[in-house]
Amino acid sequence: MSSLVLPRSAQVIAFAIGILTHLGVFIRGEWHLQAPQLVVIHLALVILPWLARILIIPTQAYAIPWDILACFSGYLIGLFGSISIYRLFFHRLRSFPGPRLAAWTKLWHAYQCRDSRNYLVLDSLHRQYGPFVRTGKYQAVLRCQQIVYPGVNLSNQPLTMSSMNRSRRNHHLPSRSH
Fold first, then answer.
1. Residue-wise over 121-148: b if at least 16 C-beta within 10 A, else e?
2. Which of 28, 76, 123, 137 is the most exposed place for a label (fewest CB within 10 A)?
3. Whether residue 81 has pLDDT greater than 90
4. What does R_g of the chain's alpha carbons equal in angstroms?
């Protein structure tokens, strides 16, 4: 029996399709909101060709489709490689200082804050990188105490309700409604 084996050029084409998918589709919008649908679609990209092969050559029903998996791997490498290069070198937040992994994925920051001490992580990042720090692929954090409560020097006096109320009165900020 003959088997269908995809040529090496199919992997290269799949790699190019991965890059084009990023540049044509995923570079726009917030796709993380559709993550479950995207996983299903990408799984279908592997399962449907395998099912088509089973229909064409029924004797290969239990054979592992290495060539299909190789093409899908080429697609994923092209897609994630393009996304990584874009986020690290061409994204509009690329000039903000911060950890390189933070520019690539928000998972780095989530891992650092796994024990619910985000304020300590941000404090150490600001000490290392300055007042502007990139903490995620689409997020930069600014540390400026005067913006939080004008007139309250957070580094020299404790933040209390009376100091916040005094700051509101001095700067004509609206009071908190209960």
1. bbeebeeebeebbbbbbeeebebeeeee
2. 28
3. yes
4. 25
Q: Are residues 27 and 58 in the same domain?
A: yes
pLDDT digits (tens, 9 = 90+) for 55-68: 887 776 677 778 88
The pTM score is 0.68
Does a structural domain hold residue 40? yes
Structural domain contains residue 1: no
Query: Which of 60, 90, 120 is where one domain is finished?
Result: 90
Element housing 75 (H / E): helix 66-85
Nearest to 22 by CA among 71, 73, 75, 83: 83
Spatial contact of 133 and 98, defined as CB atoms under 8 Å apart? yes
Please check whether residues 78 and 17 belong to one and the same domain.
Answer: yes
The residue segments making up the domain with residue 37 are 8-90
